[in-house]
What we know:
13-stranded mixed beta sheet; alpha/beta; globular; 4 helices; 19% helix
Amino acid sequence: MSEGKIDRSQIIIGLLLVCLGLLFLLNTFGYLSWNTWEVLFRFWPVILIIGGLNVLLKNTKMWWIVPILIILIFTGLVMTSNQNLFFEKGKNYSGSYSTDRSLNEDLKNLKVDVNCKAGKLRLAAVRDKNRLYNMDLNYKNNKPAFSYNIENSTTGHLSLEQKAKFNFGKSLTGANWDLFLTEEIPLAINIEAGAGKIDLDLRQLRVKQLNIDSGVSDLNLQLNNYDTNVEINSGASNIKIFIPATAGLRITTSSVINNSNFEEAGLIKLYEDVYQSKNFGEVGHHIKMDISTSASNINLIYQ
Length: 303
């Protein structure tokens, strides 16, 4: 290396040591639980990929991709291990909130917007078919913002948002929300999530559009045999997708680092990053998915 020239490999090694040291420090002072290392172990192939990218890119103009990925993964580990690190603690304000609404026979569609910044979100079908929705929301610090209105005579709009203020270093336990929706009418669902666990059991729901925009998350998605468009944008995530064997499936992916089992699950690779089930042209219902992630493990399961 000539005098004054930056050794990019040393930058990568130094950044890794700093991130590992910060993780140990946050563990020691109780800001992070020790299950951080369990999360890191689950994504150990990403470390090999980063090493390979460093070898390939260190002498190119794209060398900066590797340190950016390290910073993203470090941030993801912090947020996954302790989802409440970034939100301000409220003034002794915690509790639960439950509500429901009867199904209106004139309603033909329902739009659902959910913004859960941190915590656990579960979504499934209502048990009582006479209900449009019911929900059980457990929260700390700030009560969720909730609204429902009819945008026109046939479309309802349900909105649910977790309120929180940024203040690094103060603790806030994330939300724990259970949301149940009607299976009687078509649904358009939009979910924005920060860090946490998302469990979507849509096997009985008529979801025509599903948009998921998440940071670092553990996502379980079970879909119905129904014509559904799915768009997933996420950071470093572990994603499990359960598909009915009778549905046609097409997946388009766009990822910096992506570990998937699409071909092992029986999908055919049509083009670069485009996969399709063998029965796509033979069945009546189709699921079309567009998945964009920075670093994710995607597991497709037929059921």
